[in-house]
Q: What sequence folds into this?
């Protein structure tokens, strides 16, 4: 698998996981702590921050459910467009002899769909963030920073595979 395809696949997975995690949280879960509580300590993520650790009121949880449902409905056609663009790119890449303009065009279509998805993810994050109190926003920013630092640390510790291995 090429680096570009790995990156594209990763971007799609991240986008889907972000909206899926927010949706899971918004649906509530066992133990009254809300879904999205992955792993020990209940570190769930929704729209980029740990909603499960913000002591949300029932009204806030309902607002977040509504926001995530609306987001899912709005991004469904975009996800389909992204999947179609990725499939068209795969076909263009595998065409022999190489059709450079076709590959470039397909790559631009994928990039445009990914950019649109990134905008939608930012809107979701912003909409959910606007539901939070000032204290919850502060805590959310702190938790986001911690999560980013931990992710960076994990990436630095992870062994790298030599090129050519999957």
A:
């Amino acid at each position: 698998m090429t680096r570009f395809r790995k990156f594209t696949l990763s971007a799609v997975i991240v986008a889907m996981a972000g909206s899926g995690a927010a949706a899971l949280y918004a649906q509530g879960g066992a133990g009254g702590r809300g879904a999205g509580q992955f792993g020990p300590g209940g570190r769930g993520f929704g729209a980029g921050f740990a909603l499960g650790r913000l002591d949300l009121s029932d009204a806030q949880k309902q607002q977040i459910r509504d926001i995530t449902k609306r987001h899912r409905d709005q991004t469904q056609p975009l996800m389909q467009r992204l999947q179609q663009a990725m499939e068209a790119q795969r076909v263009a890449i595998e065409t022999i002899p190489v059709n450079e303009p076709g590959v470039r065009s397909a790559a631009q279509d994928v990039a445009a769909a990914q950019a649109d998805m990134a905008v939608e993810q930012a809107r979701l994050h912003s909409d959910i963030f606007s539901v939070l109190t000032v204290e919850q926003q502060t805590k959310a920013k702190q938790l986001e920073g911690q999560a980013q630092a931990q992710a960076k640390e994990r990436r630095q510790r992870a062994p790298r595979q030599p090129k050519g291995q999957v």
